[in-house]
Specification:
alpha/beta, Peroxisomal Thiolase, Chain A, domain 1, 13 strands, 32% helix
Length: 323
């Protein structure tokens, strides 16, 4: 059950280096026109010396400062990532170390649905664990696992992190969580882990593994799943509908399709993929930060968050905005 919690602070962090579509023309057979027409992306931030866990810690510290709390107030940290540089301990443990807090920690690997999954998980656990504050972070360095010889995928991805602080409150501010999934029979979106040689098996000199994606199949799944989740949440809202949407920023063409299919106006969707590309689980919290900074999100708004991606998975939650 979702506890009576609200978002008390948010923060984001992206690498300094910006790579434009024109820069990519020098790397792979592509063009600015080709990328923009198919994705809506103009540029993306990419890691050089930074790590995804560093970006995650920076975003978490900004969110904690925004919430006006001390690190010692935090009882739970959830990290959402598929690109952590550490297998164990996970991203959440690294963030706890940087924040200087001893608390419950866990990581979630749910691809681009990760942040929504993390929000639902954290808000469901706070009452059970008697926690007043929790932090949910999404941090990714997707350019590290992109195949830079595959123009159909490498142009899509960027790096970054976003975080929120959840605070236990007196009223319900997070509503109608939805998590769904469809078996990915054909591996239309997958990134394997490299094999390793042991004394008992494995292969010599295993190849590096990269993200592989069947864009057409992912598009077909995404538009149907996102529409379904948004309609289910809107039905649950009853006479108090959400009027704004922050969706996973995978491809602007996906969002255009969804806007038309559910009969909303495009300006009711916050879209910033042009500047960041697809940062997987981090797209939604980064967009939340930009939306608040630009005045698109206002106190009192009812906004739907929806993520979709590998698994195949999709999820959403409705938030009464209080910042």
């Amino acid at each position: 059950m979702i506890d009576k919690v609200e978002i008390a602070g948010i923060g984001s962090s992206v690498p300094e280096k910006v790579v434009t579509n024109f820069d990519l023309e020098k790397v792979v057979d592509t063009s600015d026109v080709w990328i923009k027409k198919r994705t809506g992306i103009s540029s993306r931030h990419v890691v050089t010396s930074e790590r995804s866990i560093d970006l995650a810690a920076a975003a978490a510290l900004k969110a904690i400062d925004h919430a006006g709390i001390d690190g010692s107030d935090i009882g739970l940290i959830i990290g959402c990532t598929i690109t952590s540089e550490q297998i164990t301990p996970g991203m959440s443990s690294f963030v706890a170390k940087q924040v200087g807090v001893d608390c419950a920690m866990m990581d979630i690997s749910a691809g681009c649905t990760g942040f929504v999954t993390g929000l639902i998980t954290a808000s469901s656990m706070m009452d059970t664990l008697n926690i007043d504050y929790a932090v949910v972070i999404a941090g990714e360095a997707l350019t590290k696992i992109a195949n830079w010889s595959d123009r159909s995928t490498c142009v899509l991805f960027g790096d970054g992190a976003g975080a929120v602080v959840l605070k236990k409150g007196d009223e319900q501010k997070m509503h109608y969580p939805v998590l769904t999934g469809t078996r990915d029979y054909d591996n239309v979106l997958i990134c394997k882990k490299e094999d390793r040689k042991t004394p008992f098996g494995g292969v010599d000199n295993p190849p590096l593994e990269y993200i592989k994606m069947d864009g057409r199949e992912v598009f077909t799944y995404a538009v149907g799943a996102v529409e379904d989740v948004l309609r289910r949440m809107q039905k649950s809202c009853g006479d108090k509908p959400y009027t704004k949407v922050i969706a996973h920023q995978a491809n602007e063409k996906i969002l255009d399709y969804v806007v038309r299919s559910i009969g909303m106006d495009k300006d009711q969707f916050f879209i910033n993929i042009s500047e960041y590309g697809n940062t997987s689980s981090a797209t939604i919290p980064i967009a939340m930060c930009d939306a608040l900074e630009q005045g698109w999100l206002q106190k009192g708004d009812r906004v739907a968050l929806v993520g979709f991606g590998s698994g195949l998975s999709c999820g959403g939650i409705v938030i009464d905005w209080t910042l």
